[in-house]
Structure formats: structure tokens, C-alpha cells
Specification:
115 residues; 4-stranded antiparallel sheet; elongated
């Protein structure tokens, strides 16, 4: 990747708490009996299940930029913080506004900036 291009990535997160069936029975991903009961039901849904076949309570697909380069000044900036908030009761995911900042690195084409 050219040095002046942003660095990007993608990440899929599976979030687990518990799931309930239509009768209200609760199942947990960390209990072996629950996994063996649920895995056959959710077979084939690999994008929403862990390696044991237990279904995730929520799935987040994150596309992110870890580094940006200003094409005019060649200054590199990095996000300091991004907060994703998951409410397991409503299964909603939000991004905390105001939790973002930028850290700017010096230009690397200036001799005094190399250490």
C-alpha cells in the first residue's frame, strides 16, 4: 500500500450473552449442554455462530480507518478512541459521539523527524 493511502480494515465481532427460546428458556454459550442443544438448530449460520455453533446475541461488522494521510502535508493522523456501545436488552449498537479525537504525527519526509 502506498505511504500516502489510508490504512483500512474490517472486523466482525460476535457478541454473546444468552438467548431465549420461544418458551422463555434461557441458554448460555459457556454451558456445554446448551451448546449441544443449540448447535444443530443454528448449523449453517456461520456468520452468526461461534466455532461451536452457538448463536451470537449480536453481530457487529466494523469497517475502520486506522491511519489517514493528508495528501497536501503528508501528516498522518490516527483516531484516539472509538466507543461502540451494545445494549444486550435491546440488541442495539451505537457509537459514542464525542469519543473521537485525532493524534497527528509529524511529516516523515523532513530529516529532523527521523529518530
Amino acid at each position: 500500500m502506498p505511504a500516502n493511502e489510508p490504512t483500512k480494515g474490517a472486523l466482525k465481532l460476535l457478541l454473546f450473552s444468552s438467548i431465549a427460546d420461544k418458551d422463555g428458556n434461557t441458554y448460555y454459550w459457556y454451558q456445554k449442554d446448551d451448546v449441544s442443544r443449540l448447535a444443530p438448530v443454528y448449523a449453517g449460520q456461520s456468520d452468526k455462530t461461534d466455532e461451536n455453533g452457538f448463536p451470537a446475541s449480536a453481530v457487529i461488522d466494523l469497517d475502520f480507518v486506522t491511519r489517514n494521510v493528508n495528501p497536501e502535508t503528508l501528516e498522518v493522523s490516527y483516531p484516539e478512541e472509538i466507543d461502540y456501545i451494545w445494549n444486550p436488552e435491546t440488541n442495539e449498537i451505537s457509537v459514542r459521539e464525542g469519543g473521537l479525537g485525532n493524534r497527528t504525527m509529524p511529516r516523515f519526509d523532513e530529516p529532523g523527524n527521523f529518530h
